[in-house]
Fold this sequence. Notes:
Layout: H1 9-16, H2 20-41, H3 48-62, H4 72-90, H5 104-114, H6 122-137, H7 141-152, H8 157-164, H9 168-195
Helix pairs in contact: 1-2, 2-3, 2-4, 3-4, 5-9, 7-9
Amino acid sequence: MSDTQTIPPEVLEGVRKGEDHAWRELIRLLSPQVYSIIRRQIRSTAEHDDLAQETFTKIFLKLDRFAGKNEFRHWVSRVAINTCYDWLRKKKSRPLSSFSDLSEKEESIISQTLVGESPENDDNLNELRRILDRLISSLNPKEQIVIRLLDLEENSVHDVCELTGWGASKVKVTAMRARGKLAGMLKAINRRDLEHE
Length: 197
């Protein structure tokens, strides 16, 4: 999550003083980090610019609250992740409970994966990633954030706690529930595929 490029103190000081050029420089320096977080958490590309703008607004409004206990970029990551979480909570996720919108090919790819077969080619691997993303997107917002941070980005529980502000037990229980739901969805897809054979 961290970037080796630190934010020059004079830029932060300039932003605090309301200097436009300092604010533009801060946005320039933080944009790659903020957009990267948003892309990993929110798959709808149409929302990325709005979420980035909202993240930068929160950074600007909350800059005086930055206590300096953690690295500034870490604090920015936390603001961006929580902005994504707030967006997910406002948006209603559509559960894939019936799986009727999965094609036969998608069902077949999942079934092959469940029995330990690797995807046959890059197209199937990319298709598997899209399917898993759809399944993850059907989880509740907290579960989506935790699964993406823990399992897809391979952060530790401690890192997820730092990035979200949630306690370790909440992160662990949320991850356990999310994994259980995903396993159930995959089994239902596999059952449906076997019934069609």
